[in-house]
Amino acid sequence: IMAATINPRFLVHKIRDSVCFIQRRNRVKTKWAGSRPKVAATDLALHHFDATYSLQLGDLWPSVRIGMLSEKKYGALMNNFASNSDIISSLHSQGCRDFISEAACSTEKATPAERSSQLPELHSHTAAPIGSSIQCFVFPRGDISRFKPARPDSDGLLSYYLLDAASVLPVLALDVQPGDTVLDLCAGPGGKTLALLQTQAARFLWANDLSGSRTTRLRRTLQSYLPKDLLTEDRVHITSLDGRQWRNKDELMFDKVLVDVPCTTDRHSLMEEDNNIFKRSRTKERQKLPLLQMELLLAGIQATRPGGDVLYSTCSLSQLQNQCVVEQAISVAQQEMNITVQVRNLSSFVHMFSDTFHFAPQPAVGELVLPHLCANFGPIYMCKLQRIR
Prior knowledge:
The structure is a single chain. This protein is α/β, with parallel strands linked by helices. The protein has 15 helices and twelve strands. The strands form two sheets. Strands 5, 6, 7, 8, 9, 10, 11 and 12 form an eight-stranded mixed sheet that branches. The termini are far apart.
């Protein structure tokens, strides 16, 4: 009733007085992207993994998910060029064990019948890593203790390098023999390169990475662990080249090639915002990863001499980045490059190192280390190929 008694002219004047007109040149258009709520890259990664890996891994995904969201375990890659006998004794006293020598001992103690039934590939050249001089110490399963930072010896060389112990497996699988020439196509930041040199078998190692900052870090790492006389150009050569261009270097061929490709780095993507490939600005880069990985693997295959081996590895659970890349590269190498490669059997790794790592059951191609709370290493995928011709 009171509203009906208000003069309409009065309302019109009030509305006009309350409106503030802004000149067109001073107006600012609200952008939708600016008003959209920001989602952390780690959350985007988790959402993507939940949607993808729950289908790929099935009932295994919940335990793998918990492992990846928990603090990962490290291994101490011993520096064979440093004076570290006291360090090794100290690690033993803390309950640490060298999982590589432990696997070698258990294999040597097995009877011939046990070897043939449990480790059918050990007689072949594929599964020779148990003779490696690499030492990598880990705390027992379920023990989440941390290693202390490495200290330099009297010559200034650090005693060990901390890394995901599962990342040593591709180096062991590559099985570098005395006198081999080795190419590490995507070498930065240097953990696997250092492990390759710890074999003390390579006659020459070429370490390459496209990123200048990663090769700089690689150089610093090698200088901290290796004597200067080993870092000469005729022993270790470091470059910053696009690995895909190796397909144009027919004159450069190697006995062993490691292709540890850029990937979604699953654990990092879940835990760190910095340099996270799941940032919205890097969506196209992430979508192109399988193509980049295949091109790098093809370059690695072409850089391998006939009869030599190439080891493809990632730190991702993704089938698209793992077995699909391998299968596609094998097909393209045959059809477009007239190069025949075959997959080498690495199932012996599951038997030898199952006390240390948790492996995926029977993957179609290659082997996959799954994160697990009791053995929280990985993920690491690896597939070994031999170039036939």
